[in-house]
Amino acid sequence: MGDAGLLSLLARRWWVGLVILLVAGATVAGIVALRGGPAAGQVTPGAAALAGRELVTVHLQTLTTEVPLEGRLVFPNTAELTFHVARGIAGKVGDVAVAPGQRVQQGQLLASMDATSRTSLETVVAEAKLRLDHAQDALETASERFATTPVEKAQFEQEIADGRVALDNAQDELDDFLTDDNQSLAKVQFSQDDAQVALDDAQKALADFDVDYQKELTGARKAKADAETALEAAEDALTSIIGTLGSSRVTDTDVWDHLPRLQSTVEAARASLAKAKEDLARLETGPDELKLRRLKAAVTVAQTTLAKAQTQLGRQAAGPDAAELAAKQKKVATLQRKLDELLNGPESLVVALRTAEVAHARAAVADALKDLEGANVRAPFAGVVALVNAEVDDIVTKDSPIVTL
Length: 405
Prior knowledge:
4-stranded antiparallel β-sheet, 8 helices, 9 strands, elongated, disordered N terminus
């Protein structure tokens, strides 16, 4: 039995004994009361037993025990959440409502796209609803019944379905073409920004070159002066001790031992001075031409890279390739015309076709609403935010990780 179970069993036994004792005492007190109590001056055995003892009030409390455990937390659910917008349309992050470590509830809003992206999706929803209204109106006007064979009806409906699939595919190709152009524009914009930063850094390094040279020249002159001062001090100390040795008979061995150290100090000071003079002479001839040429070359390269990025951005900003765009748009228009011709075909199938149009338009509305909701990232379950992978104004697609829950 565990510690908690044992303590619980002991507590229950203790309370049972206490209840029995209280019931017995109450019974004795009742009997004494019924009999009129003890005579004056007479002490009962129970009172004698309680004499000299202190009464204690007992309170009911919960007995708990803490049991230390060792282990590792395991999260049964982990999800990397993204925006769910069809065709991978790029947009910007408008709001991030959570931070790492924050606990969230199921369905709680974690992040959303910016107002521009949401407005675009809301426009798609409005257009889809308008098409649904038109389809429903057309269905209401088609109230006649026609008698056709099941085979003719099936063949005609298959042609309509094939034409609709072909039109949807062509429209998807056109949308993907425009989406790829938008994403390429964003990449070129990033390239231009990076090139501008590189040029700024190269120009700053070139501007700092002369400042650094003047600082280095000043430091070399100071080093030379300091070396001259150190040599003069060492030579003075050596001359002083030599004069002391020449003027009298010195037997102190410490003085003789000190002489080699002073001579070494003088030699070291002379070497330092020679090095300082050599460094100063090198700097006084002018700055490092090789380093200067490298810095100037870096500026030139950065300027060229920036110019190329600006040119590419200008071309990309002008829009997609006109010929390819015109070809895709023409394909969509042709397929739309063929589908319209089919829809305006035999009157016997008008009601069925209008019904199919309503279903198709209703599905388009559902898809548009799903895309609009996909502009929000909500918690699929209650949990803790592990990572936030996006910031406001980041350009993202449906594949960009936003929050890990």
